Amino acid sequence: MTTTETRPPSAAQPEAKRNSPLSAVLRARELPVALALVILVTVTAIANPLFLSPQGVKDLLLNATIIVILAVGQAIVIITRNVDLSVGSILGLVAFMTGSLFANVEGIPIPVVFLAGLALGAVLGAINGLLVTLAKVPALVITLGTLYIYRGVNNAWAGGTQYFAGDRPDAFGALSVDTFLGFPVITLLALVVVVVVGVFLAGARSGRDLYAIGSDPEAARVFGLPVGRRVFLAFVTNGLLAGLAGVLYASRFNSVGATTGSGMELDVVAAAVVGGVAIFGGSGSVFGAAIGAILLTTITSALTALRVDKFWQQAIVGVLILAAIIIDRIASVRTARKLRISEARDV
């Protein structure tokens, strides 16, 4: 006679509950950010009904588009336990190059300008990646240096020159004016970027490798992962997306010059961190980074609509960054503690 050992319902039930889709959603790092965004929009719309007018929604989406693309690239780098502070300077260089091409090369096709911007951004990102992976110097130090180098190159190239909306083709400027199904064209392009990169990180082996590298670089090397190559490609991808953002910036705004993109790197890092991308690497998603970017730009728009002083706008963003880092740290400590308890029980 044989007996079949069955798992006690009391043990099986909690495990099933933990693995349920609802439980997974509730544990998602992006959920608090999304809820904060919904609450912010609702409260602001009640105080100022024009905030959610068709034009108001369009402005919100357009304001977030550039930061969303930059935050996606930054998230890829931060997941590998690095950071890129030069993205604002890369955007500025590409944006000025875009204006220069339209102003000085008669009849240049718009797709060629996009390809040139992507190529320049990828090259600048590759420089960062090579310096980080070959010199073995922290990315914070390397990209702080290239931030000033790229900005200096832009200053030397641009000087006092500025390119305005009249220097570009109408079709190029229409990218940030025209809509499709009610959404600005460049916002839909940003959405495509978020989805493609998100699917890559979740489904491709090389994308999952980035999380392993960020969690423990030394362990990743022991397991045979090409750490240097993966980190290099993360910086190249980040530079490429910064190049795309630079081209779209030239379409979105009326002028580009030597100071274009100055200070944007801090907003981009803030968007990624607030969106649940752990500053210590190894966790987070580009979807969360995108939501974080929308949240930060919406905060600025909401406080402006409510006539709140600009100082308080910056202070609130700073509080959000600190809160995101503290919450992430607490969550990491709790996870490590549960793991130790579970291992002790198994023993």
Automatic annotation (TrEMBL):
- Membrane topology listed for this record: Multi-pass membrane protein
Which Gene Ontology terms of cellular component type are present? Answer: plasma membrane
Query: Out of the domains of life, which is the source?
Result: Bacteria
Keywords tagged on the record:
Cell inner membrane, Cell membrane, Membrane, Transmembrane, Transmembrane helix, Transport
Enumerate the subcellular locations listed in this protein's record, separating them with semicolons.
Cell membrane
Which Gene Ontology terms cover its molecular function?
A: transmembrane transporter activity
Q: Which Pfam families match?
A: BPD_transp_2 (PF02653)
Segments spanning the bilayer are 31-53, 60-79, 85-105, 112-135, 180-202, 231-250, 311-331
| Described purpose of this protein according to its UniProt entry | Part of the ABC transporter complex LsrABCD involved in autoinducer 2 (AI-2) import. Probably responsible for the translocation of the substrate across the membrane.
What PANTHER family does UniProt report for this protein, alphabetically? ABC TRANSPORTER PERMEASE PROTEIN YPHD-RELATED-RELATED (PTHR32196), AUTOINDUCER 2 IMPORT SYSTEM PERMEASE PROTEIN LSRC (PTHR32196:SF29)
Per UniProt, subunit arrangement is: The complex is composed of two ATP-binding proteins (LsrA), two transmembrane proteins (LsrC and LsrD) and a solute-binding protein (LsrB).
Q: State the protein's name.
A: Autoinducer 2 import system permease protein LsrC
